[in-house]
Amino acid sequence: MDRRWAQDVLRCHLCETPNPPMHCEVCKKYMCKVCVKQHLFDESKEHIVVPFENRGLVTKCSNHSTDLCDIYCEQCDIPFCVECVSSGGHLGHKQVGILKILETKRKAMQRDLQELEKNILPKYHEIASNITVQKAELKENSQKQTTAIIKHGEDLHQEIDTAIQRMTADLNEMDSNNLVFLNKQEDYLKATISVIMQSIEKLNKLLNSNDVRIVSAYKCRNAEFRRLPPKHSVPLPSFIHPEINKKQIYQQFGSLSAFLTKTEERGYTTDSPDTESSPPDRPLDEPRINADIKTAYVALKRVSCLSDEQIWTCGNTNIMTLYNLRGNLVNTIQTKSGKRPSDITVTRSGDLVYADALNRTVNIVKNTQIQEQVRLRGWRPSSICRSFSISGDLLGFFISDDGEQAKVVRYSGSTEKQVIQYDDKGQCLYLSCYHNKICENRNLDICVSTTSAVVVVNLAGKHRFTYTGPPSTTKGSFVPRGITTDSKGQILIADLSNCHIHIIDMDGQFLRYIDNCVLLDPSGLCVDTRDNLFVAEFRTTHVKKIKY
């Protein structure tokens, strides 16, 4: 063949007529209409001649390899040949021509292509470009927040330096005043000693003198010298400071509004998607259980975080148990009275505090030794919690012996500092119930779960709001039990009736439920430093750690 043919138009393989309109699917040759008849005269094989635009549409039958498919079965979703029809293989099935189904498929593919190009792909590009913007914003925000953290640290250092200078100046002033006093006392003693020594010298001379006139003039001053001046001891000041708690310092220094999570926790995977895979359908913020701890109680009531790895629990016995997140028992403490505790909490320094309603006491455990911190008369402690204030107060919810009254009391050590019982109109803020639970929010609001509502007051005890459930819901009645707050100031409430968790903001606005973790009789709640939620289930006696 002439080399120039490759650069010419397509020609008939038999006569080289340009632009042949026909094609033999068996011989793979292009032909003009004149040459088609000549080509079909070759009876050595069965030729299949089709229009040029339909070339490649013919498929060999999978059951009869010598036959070509020209029919398509819609039920079986496969092409087949005439021989398959005669054999009854697709009897009663809907059959269409192979060219018609091909055209139908092409139209569907065209629609898919159009959707991919004009709708889906641009959205992915938009999301990808948004990632680029977020990365830039992340870098800018990181620099901004780093500067703010450093500036805050410098301000704290300046305040600390100022405090050091002020305290050093106070110490120097105290030393100066004490030194002036000591110098005056020293001068007086030196002068008196000098007079006494002169008297001694004079007496020695008189004892050796026979001059009656001089001896008779002697007057004793011993009575004067017997009145010794008082021995003054100046106070030596000591520098008194609290023990440095690194965890407390970190918490008081400040906090980040949100912690970064792993990519898989946000609904993405680090693996590249397959061509047939579908995008993740799990919401990015869907709560999930990260740990499930079985306790040894018959009924479990309360849970309190000692750390991010260990939790204290209490239930229907007089034993309080410490578990790690693997479910291993770490420690046990028995109540001093032998009665079951009504509530537990953990101080900033890691000491366990428990309320003993039957014994009317609040007790603290220090180095395995139980110390009675508060003893009540006419009242019983239903619930306790530690305060987020710098002073680290203890808050207690107390119920009168007759069960008619309830109040919140703030303690500093064993000293009562504040009582909250009535609103501005003199009405009782709280309904008495031994299932009540108290906690304090990051803005120092005091939150109490009552029989059918959560009552929130501010630091001064003024009523802020009462939460009785979302404004509209098809769920059952609201029965709050355990209550806690997180680093964002959100309030989390265990709803015993509906077996899920309500999340509201610090102003009482409903945000969402945690209702996908199969919680059974949620009773006690607490959160760790990373806002993982621990839920104590009353009847199953399990503690579930939930990432929400």
Provide an overview of this structure:
The chain is an alpha+beta fold. It has 3 domains: 3-102, Classic Zinc Finger (Double Stranded RNA Binding Domain, 2-Layer Sandwich); 107-241, no CATH class; 288-547, Neuraminidase (6 Propeller), CATH 2.120.10.30. Helix content is 26%, strand content 29%. The protein contains 6 helices and 32 strands. It has helices at 33-40, 82-86, 98-207, 212-216, 222-226, 246-253, and strands at 22-24, 29-31, 49-51, 59-60, 68-69, 71-73, 78-80, 95-97, 288-294, 300-305, 310-315, 319-324, 329-334, 343-346, 352-356, 361-366, 369-375, 379-386, 394-400, 406-412, 415-420, 437-440, 446-449, 454-457, 463-467, 480-485, 491-495, 500-504, 510-514, 522-527, 532-537, 542-547. The strands form 9 sheets. Strands 9-32-31-30 form a 4-stranded antiparallel beta sheet, with no helix packed on it. A 4-stranded antiparallel beta sheet has the order 10-11-12-13, with no helix packed on it. β16 and β17 form a beta hairpin. The longest helix has 110 residues, at 98-207. The chain is elongated and about 180 Å long. This is B box-type domain-containing protein. Residues 7-52, 61-98 form the B box-type domain. Residues 269-278 have a biased composition (Polar residues). GO terms for molecular function: zinc ion binding. Pfam families: zf-B_box.
